Amino acid sequence: MTPRRRLSAILLRVAVVLAVLAGIVLTALGPATVTGLLPYFTIQSNVAVGVVAGYAAWCALRDRPEPPSALKGAVTLYITITGTVYHLVLANPASPFAMAQPDRQPGEWWGNQFLHTVVPLLAVADWALFDRRGRLRPRYAAWWLVFPLGYLGFALVRGLVVDRYPYPFIDAGELGYDGVAVSAVGFATVFWLLGLLFVGVDRLLARAGRAEPATPAAAPGAGEPPAAAGPEEPPVVQRETTGSA
């Protein structure tokens, strides 16, 4: 990176870290506690993207190699899932899995916005602007599903113990395990396609970066037909004359 580009990357990544911290702290000021927030995919994905962004900022500051593109793509996908599912599924009254949105105090409201809107937008901007291009492969989209599927298993086992589930689309008490399986397959398919979208965008940006620069302006007189070559004139021989003393 150039010094100016490196400085921009550092500032954006520090903004991601600060937004994650602000979101968690402000949300914890409400009824929920930090330990009560940990079982949520929202918190786990925010913590993951905050840690990677902090490490990437340190790498840029020290001019070290960036974090692996597969890791950066994974956490960016997870935080994108957080924002997308919240706005299109959980906070959307038309969704069958919409959750009642309580009246929040200003601090808690801002914390919710940081975690579900601000951090996802900043993280995607960092990935699009400063990540190394052309390193993602289509198979990564399948590997990236390991964490969401692992989270599903964790949420189901925890639900058996505490009889409470973090999200309505994985609520085995309401949907039954058959309903949760159908829901999980649908969400996993969407997440896989979203991962493939990240890979496709990465390749498009890589091609744009390798595009040939614009043809430089022609020099004056370019495009004019060359002058006809005339008969070559013999060189003029200068003779030295010796002056009289």
Q: How does this structure look, described?
A:
- The protein has 245 residues and is mainly alpha-helical.
- The chain is built from eight helices and no strands.
- The longest helix is centred in the last third of the chain and has 39 residues, at 172-210.
- The protein starts with a helix and ends in a 35-residue tail after the last helix.
Task: Write a concise synopsis of the structure shown.
The chain has helices at residues 3-28, 34-37, 41-61, 69-90, 106-130, 138-143, 146-162, 172-210. It has 245 residues and is mostly helical. The model is unreliable at 214-245 (pLDDT under 50).
- The best one-word shape is globular
Distance separating the two termini: 73 Å
Number of helices: 8
User: Would you list the SSEs in sequence order as H and E?
Assistant: HHHHHHHH
Please tag this protein with its features.
mainly alpha; 245 residues; disordered C terminus
Sequence-ordered SSE layout with sheet pairings:
Elements (H helix, E strand, L loop, with lengths): L2 H26 L5 H4 L3 H21 L7 H22 L15 H25 L7 H6 L2 H17 L9 H39 L35
Helix pairs in contact: 1-3, 1-5, 3-4, 3-5, 4-5, 4-8
